[in-house]
Specification:
The chain is of the alpha/beta class and 228 residues long. It has 10 helices and 6 strands. The chain has a 6-stranded parallel beta sheet, with helices on both faces. The modification 4-aspartylphosphate is found at residue 55.
Length: 228
């Protein structure tokens, strides 16, 4: 069965180019194209699709509003945000409204095809080039402070509600170090463990939380804090 798509972008050239690229895939079927978030919601309500490719900046209902409306009307539909480097706060808002991930607009077509299949399968897609920057902003958006004006990480006492997850104290510590950008070697040195042991811990943590990689794990950690 093919993946049913909607392409939402106010630039007609980009919209039609994406449609052409997607139609070349044997497992894709482009059902709708439109130019605003409001149009996307109306079309999804009339004939639901599996995945929406959602531009972020549109004049009549941007990607955040479009995501909110589509997910409200069609909870099972996945929304993949197409964005640029300077859309961090908008991406955070879209993720909070249920977007399944985001991809930079200058990504290769093959990367886009892979991304569509990834979110359709139920996974979350985070482009590694901006994910950690977003995670930092997400952490500070909860307190209403900017990342540059906030206190150092060591001065922030909040912790995720660890009791909700099957994680031991060593795993919790490793997650925090990963979220702060440390490599396995740096974590091993900090915790006086071997690098191989840390690698095994990370594999187990990802399995327990049903996450794909370290980037998703960092995003998960900061999102837990933002919900408190």
């Amino acid at each position: 069965m093919s993946i049913r798509l909607m392409i939402c972008d106010d630039d007609v050239f980009i919209r039609e180019s994406l449609k052409l690229i997607c139609q070349l895939q044997p497992d894709f079927s482009v059902i709708h194209t439109c130019g605003s978030g409001h149009e996307a919601a109306a079309l999804a309500a009339d004939e639901p699709v599996d995945v929406v490719l959602m531009d972020m900046r549109m004049p009549d209902g941007d990607g955040v509003e479009g995501t909110r409306l589509v997910k409200q009307l069609c909870p099972a539909t996945k929304v993949l945000i197409l964005t640029t480097f300077d859309d961090e706060q908008h991406i955070i808002d879209a993720l909070r409204h249920g977007a399944s991930g985001y991809l930079l607009k200058n990504s290769d077509p093959s990367r886009l095809m892979e991304a569509i299949r990834t979110v359709h399968s139920g996974s979350v897609l985070m482009d590694s080039s901006v994910a950690l920057k977003l995670a930092h902003l997400l952490r500070h958006s909860n307190s209403g402070t900017s990342a540059s004006a906030s206190a150092p990480q060591s001065d922030v006492p909040e912790q995720p509600k660890w009791e909700l997850y099957p994680l031991n104290t060593s795993e919790q510590a490793i997650i925090q170090h990963i979220a702060n950008g440390l490599s396995n070697r740096e974590i091993a040195s900090t915790l006086f463990l071997s690098e191989g042991t840390i690698k095994n811990y990370v594999t187990e943590i990802l399995a327990k939380l049903e996450l794909r990689d370290r980037t998703q794990l960092a995003i998960w950690y900061w999102k837990q804090l933002s919900r408190q």
